[in-house]
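Q: Here's a chain of 279 amino acids. Please give me its 3D structure as tokens.
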Amino acid sequence: MMSAIHEADLHAYADGQLSGARRAAVEAYLAQHPDAAAQVAAWRRQADALHGMLDPVLNEPVPLVALPPGLHGDGRRNAARPRPRWAMALAATCASVALLAVGGALGWLAHGRLGSSTLVLAPGERFAREALATHAVYAPEMRHPVEVAATEEAHLIAWLSKRLGTALQVPDLRPQGFHLIGGRLGVAEGGPSAILMYEADDGTRLSLQLRRMAQGTPDTGFRVERMSGEGARRPAPGRDPMMAFYWIDRDLGFALAGPLERARLLTLAQVVYQQYQGG
């Protein structure tokens, strides 16, 4: 008799780790439980998004400065000689370090590509990358995309305003086809951020992330940051790439992220800006 299906089975199925009878049992279960099937699909979309961000890191060569001098020089000469055990162990260690880089995904997004030199990003750009990573994590969630639902909007905005230390508001994007589903408290560069999640009738989700910038941070116009950087996966056919429009206004940073065509996302960003300007 086949045992019951547990959440661990669903995760294994989403990761492609099941085969044979167990896989068939999970598929039969999902056919009868649409909520669970939707959650599995969301996990797979989230995994695809993270692979798109992180796979390029695994393909980067180990910098020569991380290797001892004996492993530098003419590759043909070194290849002709058998490698000592310590060299093989070092190579394995370097591979482990590369894998650990994946675990530092959010830090990589915030501080640029790893390598012999560090890429210094402007505060707004770092914030936009964090907003994209945050959206990739929370937007696919079916049951818990937000901490406070839109039905408690007054409480939500009072709570987030208190945590950020500034008066916030919830932009109304219903005329543009997106309704608020709620929000949550986030973290951006070690400080609190407010995350508001919106959804369209077709299930497309946007997130608006706001954070207090350092006092005196220059205001900016609208700028775009794409998740699909060099070497990242292309979006699935019929889907737009993940991107965010971000700007800074009076020491408050804004980042509107989602899988929309550039012109449409910019229009929504302009609506948010105008509502915060009171116009």
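Q: Can you summarize the key feature?
A: Residues 123-276 form a domain with the Protein Transport Mog1p; Chain A fold (CATH 3.40.1000).
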